[in-house]
Specification:
Elements lengths: L8 E8 L3 E8 L2 E9 L6 H15 L4 E9 L2 E3 L4 E4 L11 H9 L2 E6 H13 L5 E6 L3 E7 L2 E3 L24 H5 L1 H12 L8 H9 L3 H25 L3 E5 L6 H14 L6 E4 L5 H8 L9
Parallel strand pairs: 1-4, 4-7, 8-11, 11-12
Antiparallel strand pairs: 1-2, 2-3, 5-6, 8-9, 9-10
Helix pairs in contact: 3-9, 5-7, 6-7, 7-8
Length: 299
């Protein structure tokens, strides 16, 4: 029997990152419709809000949406639904996103950090881990940490120092995890190893070259994997998680990346957690944002 969209209740999950906005219409925990659009990160609060509202209205046309969950890159006052600041969305400051959505769409809305949303999504997907960490490797590096079934809100592992006085990070500090493991970091490795800047080079192209046997591309991923192994060992030694799940575009390097990462993790920890590439991929943040209220969040 065909479902009549107007007579059913659906939810809308949104994952706002530094590069893309991912939207998914969800029934139960199944995404039935999805869209990816560009993040207009040069827009200030009001203009960005209008851009988002127009995109939502167009996307949900014909669906009865009962609630909206939004994960967004940056430090979020989740009780008020306010994005305080975001290194990867620098024009957005003290953005009352929850109120803006409520006022314009009259739909119950939750707002939280995007990496926290991904962690909740993975938690509900696996359902067997009390201690779980997600690391989202994309434009930036987001961390979602759940210990004893409780979320540590707004953890910013991506802005802890990996290399003192190292690469300049988007937050203004030097040597952050994000400056090495975000997309700008792998491109810096490429520039150093190719000994020149290659126009149009992306992490996806580097991975494709590596799979084709390009020795320099393989060396780039090996170097990236080394720093990722060091970062994961720091997380493992502090939190002792059962599993660390890698998400985001750079995690698409998959088993090739893990080949270089796991030995470094083993060398620098007494106990090695499982390290997996996410099965949910980009859906983790969408599912997690919608489960925020049942996880105890949402104000």
């Amino acid at each position: 029997m065909k479902i009549k969209k107007d007579h059913c209740s659906f939810s809308l999950g949104i994952d706002i990152g530094g590069t893309n906005i991912k939207m998914g219409i969800v029934k139960g925990n199944k995404i039935i419709k999805k869209k990816i659009l560009k993040t207009e990160k040069d827009l200030p609060n009001k203009e960005f809000g209008k851009y988002l509202i127009n995109a939502i209205r167009d996307f949900i046309k014909g669906y009865k949406i009962e609630k909206i969950g939004i994960g967004i890159a940056g430090y979020v006052d989740y009780q008020q639904g306010v994005l305080k600041f975001s290194p990867n969305l620098p024009q957005l400051k003290n953005f009352f996103l929850k109120n803006f959505i409520n006022e314009n769409l009259k739909i119950k809305t939750f707002v939280l950090n995007d990496a926290d949303a991904a962690a909740i999504g993975e938690y509900f997907y696996h359902r067997k881990y009390r201690n779980l960490i997600t690391l989202t490797l994309g434009t930036g590096v987001g961390s979602g940490i759940i210990i004893n079934n409780k979320l540590i809100y707004n953890s910013e592992f991506g802005h802890t120092i990996l290399i003192p006085n190292g690469f300049l990070c988007s937050c203004g500090k030097r040597g952050c995890v994000e400056s090495y493991l975000g997309s700008s970091g792998i491109l810096r490795f490429a520039e150093n190893l190719y000994k020149r800047k290659i126009k149009g080079l992306t992490p996806k192209i580097i991975f494709k070259k590596a799979k084709a046997g390009d020795k320099i591309a393989l060396a780039i991923i090996k170097k990236y994997g080394f720093y990722l192994g060091i970062a994961l060992s720091n997380l493992a030694n502090i939190f002792n998680p059962e599993i660390i799940i890698l998400n985001g575009g750079l995690s698409n390097m998959g088993n090739l990346l893990l080949k270089f990462t796991k030995p470094v993790l083993k060398e620098n920890t007494f106990y090695q957690p499982k390290v997996h590439i996410s099965n949910l991929k980009t859906n983790a943040g969408i599912i997690g944002a919608l489960n925020f209220d049942s996880f105890g969040g949402g104000g």
